[in-house]
Design brief:
single chain; 0% strand; 2 domains; flat; mainly alpha
Length: 105
């Protein structure tokens, strides 16, 4: 698995010219490995397209919601670990605005 992740990182760095792939990973989350694996083989990609045709709107909405929530959690963790002061200040500002709005009603 580590070799596969290394190959994905190397491919991204080669395409983008960047040394760090954290921004890319935060933006696209777990979809990065998904697309790399399915896209590596044309037959696999055709199989994916056939499978995707059988997903109804409700299932798709649920899957998309779960992926978005997971990505948001990952982004929050990153911001807390790497940009803690700014993240906490933003939270404090949001809390102050929310409490002002609540007191007006």
């Amino acid at each position: 698995m580590e070799g596969a992740i290394r190959k994905i990182k190397t491919s991204y760095r080669r395409i983008s010219g960047r040394k760090n792939w954290n921004v890319f990973l935060l933006r696209h989350g777990r979809n990065v490995a998904f697309y790399a694996w399915w896209g590596a083989d044309p037959q696999r990609w055709q199989q994916f397209e056939k499978l995707a045709q059988h997903i109804d709107r409700e299932q798709w909405g649920q899957i998309r919601k779960e992926a978005t929530l997971a990505q948001n959690e990952q982004l929050k963790r990153f911001r807390f670990l790497h940009k803690r002061e700014k993240f906490l200040t933003t939270l404090e500002d949001r809390w102050a605005n929310a409490s002002e709005t609540a007191s007006l009603h």
